[in-house]
Design goal:
Elements (H helix, E strand, L loop, with lengths): L21 E6 L4 E6 H10 L5 E3 L2 E3 L2 E3 L7 E3 L21 E3 L2 E10 L2 E6 L2 E7 L2 E4 L34 E5 L2 E6 L5 E3 L8 E5 L7 E6 L3 E6 L6 E4 L6 E5 L5 E3 L8 E3 L5 E7 L3 E8 L2 E6 L5 E5 L2 E6 L5 E3 L10 E3 L8 E5 L2 E8 L2 E6 L2 E6 L5 E3 L8 E3 L33 E7 L5 E7 L4 E5 L16 H4 L5 E3 L10 E3 L2 H5 L6 E2 L15 E2 L5 H19 L1
Parallel strand pairs: 5-6, 20-21, 27-28, 33-34
Antiparallel strand pairs: 1-2, 3-4, 7-8, 8-9, 9-10, 10-11, 12-13, 13-14, 15-16, 16-17, 18-19, 19-20, 22-23, 23-24, 25-26, 26-27, 29-30, 30-31, 31-32, 32-33, 35-36, 36-37, 38-39, 40-41
Length: 551
C-alpha cells in the first residue's frame, strides 16, 4: 500500500473487524508509518499487562481506575454511578457488597425481596417488605419505627436493649416521655399501664415466684409462690416493714410471724379502725387498760349472723339480744319465744335458764319451768298458777326444809304478823286438808300464841259423852327417860309411842319399828294434846265417884 496520509484513508465499516485487518501505526522516532493487524493487537492486549479487553458486553481482565486493579473493576477514588448497578446475590459469609479488607462483612440478597447485612460472616440485619429484623444488639442514639411499626425477635430469642450504666432509657410518644428506665434500675411510667390480656410484674430470674399480675378477669394478684413466699409491705422512706402476707394466707401488721388470718401487733396498744365521713368510726382495740369495741358516734353497735342482727348496744349503753332495747333504765334485754328458756347456763351437761311468757317470769331446769313470778308479783314453785304471794307445791318430796347451822341460839324460822297486837288475834299459819278446808291454825296475839285444830260441831257426828275414860287412862304408862341424842342424859316425863297407840291411837304417828327403803329407822311420834280429852273425862268420872262417896 502506497504511503498515504491518515486523513486520506478509507473509513472502516461493518459490525466486526477481521483479524487480518491492519491498523496504521506512526513511529514518531523513525518518522515512518507501520502497521499492526487486528489479530496481532488482540493478542498483545490479552498477554500484556495494564490492558482490559471488552468484547461486546463481556470484559476480560481487571479494570483499574486511578488504581492498580486486583479485581475486575478497581476504582482508586470516588465514583458516581448515575445508572443501574447490578450485583450478585452473595451470602452472609461472602456478601455481594463487601470490603477489600473484610470480605465476610457487607450486604447480600438472601432471598426474593430480602436484603441482608452481615458482619464476621453472620447475619445481623434483615430488611424485607414488612420491616427490619435484627439478629443481635441494636446500638443507636435514636431508634424509631414508622406509624404502626413493630420491633420483634425471632421465636425463642430475647430482645435486649442495652444502654450505658450512667444513662437512662426513654420511651416517648412524640415529645412526651411514657417510660423511663434509669441507671438505678427504676422504671417510671408517664401514664397508665394497660395490658390487653394481663400485665405481670414478676421475679427477674424467670422463676415467676414473686411479683404482681393484673388479668382480664378484673383481678389483681400479688404472687409469692412456694412454702416461704411472703408479701412484705414497707414504707417509702426507711424501707421499714409495716405489714406482710405469708404463704399460709395470714396477714400480719406489726408482726413478722402472724399466727392467725389477721394479726395486728404492737408492744403497747393495738387498734383496728373502720371509719366513715358521716357515721364516725368503729374501733377494735387492745389497750393496757383493757380490750374493747367502740364507736365514736351515737349509733348502736350491732352484731349479727346470716346477715340478720342478733345483738346491739345502743348509745345509752343498753344491750339488746334478739330485740332492740327500749325499756327505760334497763341494761340488758333479751327477746325470744313465750314460755321457753331464753337465758341458759350449763355445767356438766345440766342446763337451766330463765324465760318469760303469759304466765310471767319463769325459771327452767332443762326445758321444764319449776318456778314462776307472775305479773302480779306472786311466786310459784312447782305450780304455774300461784294463788298466794308465795306458793310451793310438790307431789313426791318435802316442800321445805329449814336448817339453821349456827351453834348459837339463833332462830331457824321467824314469822311476824302485823295484825297481832294487844288482844287482837291474827292467824299466822293455816292448815288445810286435801280438799282445801281449814283444819287447824297457829294464831297469835300481841302477847300469846295458840295452836288450834278443827273442832266445830258441824264437822262431827256420832257424838258420845258416856264412854269409860278411867279404864283407858289406867292403861297409859307415863315414864321418865332421857333421849339418846342428849349428851347430858336429862330426864323428862312422857310416853313411849307404841304403848299409847292402842289406847289413844289418834295421838300417835308412824308404826313401831318402821324403816325406809334404805333400812333407816322411821320413828314414831306423839301429840300429847290428844290425851287431854281422856284426862278430862277421867277427872270427871273421879269427881262423880268422889261426890257419890261423900254423899
Amino acid at each position: 500500500m502506497a504511503d498515504q496520509k491518515i486523513s486520506e484513508l478509507t473509513a472502516l465499516t461493518g459490525a466486526n473487524l477481521a483479524d487480518v485487518d491492519a491498523f496504521a501505526v506512526v513511529d514518531t522516532s523513525a518518522v515512518q508509518t507501520k502497521k499492526i493487524t487486528y489479530g496481532e493487537l488482540k493478542a498483545a492486549l490479552d498477554t500484556g499487562t495494564g490492558f482490559v479487553r471488552i468484547t461486546g458486553d463481556t470484559m476480560t481482565g481487571n479494570l483499574g481506575i486511578n488504581a492498580t486493579p486486583t479485581q475486575r473493576l478497581h476504582v482508586g477514588g470516588n465514583a458516581i454511578i448515575t445508572g443501574i448497578t447490578r450485583l450478585g446475590n452473595g451470602t452472609a459469609t461472602s456478601p455481594a457488597y463487601q470490603f477489600v479488607d473484610d470480605t465476610n462483612t457487607g450486604m447480600y440478597r438472601s432471598s426474593s425481596d430480602v436484603l441482608g447485612f452481615s458482619t464476621g460472616g453472620g447475619n445481623r440485619l434483615t430488611l424485607n417488605s414488612t420491616g427490619a429484623t435484627f439478629a443481635g444488639s441494636v446500638i443507636a442514639p435514636t431508634l424509631q419505627t414508622t406509624a404502626g411499626g413493630t420491633v420483634t425477635t425471632a421465636s425463642g430469642n430475647d430482645l435486649n436493649i442495652v444502654y450505658p450504666s450512667t444513662r437512662s432509657l426513654f420511651f416517648k410518644e412524640g415529645s412526651t416521655t411514657t417510660l423511663t428506665l434509669d441507671n438505678a434500675q427504676n422504671a417510671t411510667f408517664g401514664g397508665n399501664i394497660i395490658g390487653s390480656d394481663e400485665l405481670q410484674l414478676l421475679q427477674p430470674n424467670g422463676a415467676n415466684n414473686f411479683g404482681m399480675e393484673l388479668n382480664n378477669s378484673h383481678q389483681i394478684k400479688y404472687k409469692a409462690r412456694g412454702s416461704s413466699g411472703t408479701h412484705i409491705f414497707t414504707n417509702t422512706t426507711s424501707d421499714t416493714e409495716r405489714a406482710r402476707l405469708d404463704a399460709s394466707g395470714n396477714l400480719g401488721i406489726g408482726t413478722t410471724s402472724p399466727s392467725a388470718n389477721v394479726e395486728i401487733y404492737d408492744t403497747q396498744n393495738t387498734q383496728l379502725r373502720v371509719n366513715t365521713a358521716s357515721h364516725g368510726y368503729l374501733d377494735l382495740s387492745n389497750y393496757a387498760n383493757g380490750a374493747g369495741v367502740m364507736t365514736s358516734a351515737a349509733h348502736p353497735l350491732r352484731l349479727g349472723t346470716a346477715n340478720i342482727e342478733r345483738m346491739r348496744i345502743d348509745s345509752s349503753g343498753r344491750v339488746g339480744i334478739n330485740r332492740t332495747p327500749s325499756i327505760s333504765n334497763s341494761k340488758l334485754e333479751v327477746g325470744g319465744a313465750d314460755n321457753v328458756s331464753i337465758i341458759n347456763v350449763e355445767a356438766s351437761g345440766v342446763t337451766g335458764g330463765m324465760g318469760i311468757g303469759s304466765t310471767g317470769l319463769q325459771f327452767f331446769h332443762g326445758s321444764t319451768a319449776h318456778m314462776r313470778i307472775t305479773s302480779s308479783g306472786r311466786v310459784g314453785i312447782g305450780t304455774s298458777a300461784p294463788d298466794a304471794t308465795f306458793t310451793v307445791t310438790s307431789a313426791a318430796e318435802p316442800i321445805a326444809k329449814f336448817h339453821q347451822t349456827a351453834t348459837g341460839d339463833v332462830s331457824a324460822v321467824i314469822m311476824q304478823h302485823g295484825r297481832a297486837a294487844s288482844s287482837t288475834s291474827a292467824q299466822m299459819v293455816a292448815f288445810l286438808n286435801g280438799a282445801g278446808t281449814l283444819v287447824g291454825s297457829i294464831n297469835l296475839t300481841g302477847s300469846a300464841t295458840e295452836y288450834a285444830t278443827s273442832s266445830d260441831y258441824r264437822l262431827k257426828e256420832n257424838v258420845d259423852y258416856s264412854w269409860d275414860a278411867t279404864t283407858r287412862l289406867k292403861q297409859l304408862k307415863p315414864a321418865r327417860f332421857n333421849f339418846i341424842s342428849d349428851d347430858t342424859n336429862t330426864l323428862v316425863d312422857g310416853f313411849i309411842a307404841h304403848e299409847v297407840s292402842s289406847i289413844v291411837p289418834e295421838s300417835i304417828t308412824g308404826t313401831k319399828d318402821a324403816v325406809d327403803a334404805d333400812n333407816n329407822p322411821v320413828y314414831q311420834g306423839i301429840d300429847q294434846s290428844k290425851l287431854v280429852p281422856l284426862l278430862v273425862k277421867t277427872i270427871q268420872e273421879l269427881e262423880a265417884r268422889i261426890t257419890a262417896l261423900e254423899a
